[in-house]
Amino acid sequence: MRYRLPSSRTQKGFSLVELIVTVGVLGIITGIAITYYGGTLDSSKRVVAKEMAETLNLGLKKHAQVNYAFNLAANDSSADDETAIVRSLQFHHPTDLVPGAPFVRPNWHPVASNSAEEFRLRWNGRIFLVVEPGTAGTGLKVAFQASDYGENYDFPDDFVPVGG
Fold this sequence. Notes:
By secondary structure, the protein is an alpha+beta fold.
């Protein structure tokens, strides 16, 4: 009895050409998906940065309705003006209660940055604007992993809000 190889019509499996075409198509789909994902991540960061700026600007508006509008010149060489405004919006006097205070979250600890690779929030003398990566200048760094949140800021006894 001789062993016979099965004929080509009854063999099962994929040919080399079919496998190469399948791998090529999967490679193209993966390339498109990675490009799309990268763009989505950048768009998401842009949206978060804009929301942070809107939150600060809303706090400015609420503060102005109850107290005064901030009159503080923009300083493009440092982020001291941005930090001072945020601390003033976070301030809640223990005895002299102001309706609506604090006007922004008191547990946010912004960090100054001048890195052109990061999203930053910059005070322009009137409102906060988003500074996108690739643009020079200083501002408050937008941290996307919430590393800038913690315990409420502990104000010194002699703290005086700025911008009045």
